[in-house]
Amino acid sequence: MRHLLSIADLGGDGIEEVLRLTDNFVEVSARAIPRVPALRGKTVVSLFYEDSTRTRLSFETAAKRLTADTMNFSVSSSSVNKGESLRDTVTTIAAMGVDAIVVRHSSAGVPWQVAKWTDASVINAGDGWHEHPTQALLDCYTIRERRGSLAGLRVAIVGDVKHSRVARSNVLAFSTLGAEVTLVAPPTLLPPSLSGWPVAVSHDLDGVLPKADVVYLLRMQRERQTEALLPSLREYTALYGLTRDRARLLGDDTLVMHPGPMNRGVEIAAEVADLPRAVITRQVANGVAVRMAVLFLMLGSGGDLG
Amino acid sequence: MDAGDLRRAITRIAHEIIEHNQGLDGVVLVGLQTGGVPLAGRLAETLREIEAVDVPVGTIDVAFYRDDIGLRPVLPEAVTDIPFDLTGRAVILVDDVLFTGRTVRAALDALNDYGRPRAVQLAVMIDRGHRELPIRPDYIGKNLPTRRDEMVDVTADGVDVGTMQKKAGA
What we know:
- The structure holds two protein chains of two kinds.
- Chain A contains twelve helices and nine strands.
- By secondary structure, chain A is of the alpha/beta class.
- In chain A, helix 5 (133-147) crosses helix 12 (280-299).
- Chain A has two domains: 7-132 and 287-299, Aspartate/ornithine carbamoyltransferase (Rossmann fold); 133-283, Rossmann fold (3-Layer(aba) Sandwich).
- Chain A is globular and about 55 Å long.
- Chain A has helices at 7-29, 54-65, 86-95, 110-117, 133-147, 165-176, 205-208, 223-226, 233-240, 244-247, 270-273, 280-299, and strands spanning 43-48, 69-74, 100-105, 121-127, 154-158, 180-184, 199-202, 214-217, 255-257.
- Chain B is α/β, with parallel strands linked by helices.
- Chain B has a single domain (3-158), classed as Rossmann fold, CATH 3.40.50.2020.
- In chain B, the strands form two sheets. A five-stranded parallel sheet of chain B has the order 2-1-3-4-5. Chain B has a two-stranded antiparallel sheet with strand order 6-7.
- In chain B, helix 3 (102-112) links the parallel strand 3 (90-98) and strand 4.
- The two termini of chain B are 31 Å apart.
- The A-B interface holds A 21, 23-24, 27-28, 31-33, 35-39, 66, 296, 299-305 and B 61, 63-65, 68-76, 79-81, 109-110, 113-115.
């Protein structure tokens, strides 16, 4: 595996390989000394043009647990403020001798450009509304951990699908592994066209919940209200929020997931986020192990393995 | 070596382990993935038959500790499983074939991450020579002189020596 730009690059076998390897890193993470020397001498730089705490920390923790060196490039304190172009920034970082660049950018496609400008491996940590492949991998791992397999599971992805890179990567990953995906959202928060998406669509959350094996809630950004895509957040919560009453419709084994950061009281009720069926902190923990697997496959496995 | 030779070698090694450690107090077995794992299991069985003691058995995969990471495809075969603390124990590392010693070196590094054993001993079924590091086994099933390009395969039925299949283009 040279780069990880899209879930589509991995395919079913690639996803399986990452998930299998993740088992090893979950074991490493559980040890008293959660560190292996696998990437000694390698350098991983995170290049984040968008605010992010959890994803950046997760990647940096993953790299450190593999004994790689980490560098952190945050835009607010860098020469980007002095007008440096993306290309010059990437060339400069690459000239320092880095092995992997973890990129987040508000424009779709940036990781592909970065990959053209450098010999380093590039990992897409979120590009615009487009993709966030490591999030999808950690979500697949978390579902498998609880349910054994995704094949035949019914997954409802609820909320702002239109602006969500998490939704795009997860639709690809879940359906590749055999799950049936239903998008549940108000029409204004769905993409203008869903042709080619392997999904069903519903506007009736109460009808979907009793049949769902996994309810995946997306973050509702408050700006959507000012953009006139929603009448009000209260109305959104009333129709599409996982409230305490709605949570009673769920089957006994149904999982509740969220990529974070959560807006408690908007897309998910505070009490629901703390139920045992809500595996949200498990997603975060598995995120480190999945990212270790991705970094190891890219930098440590020494061959064309994925 | 046939299956009978293998069984007799395991029995002898078991007796040597008991004698060397003056019993089995604090002794644990750790099998190296993948060839050492079934041998560690059989050794534990034999130790139980002799001393009526259940020796803890773990398995270890050293893929993340190898010194040839990045030079050739290396992926772990299985998840390491050492569900007990190694601190203060006498750890017997078990492998099927001892060759360059690099796997054992990696295993010694890996063990450190699970605690500080009071001693580490090495048990191998076949010592085929060609060491590249100062590592020697404490318990040996059989010394088997080989050429570097030969392959030694230990199964439940015995030990085979074959010629390594050359990869196309290699």
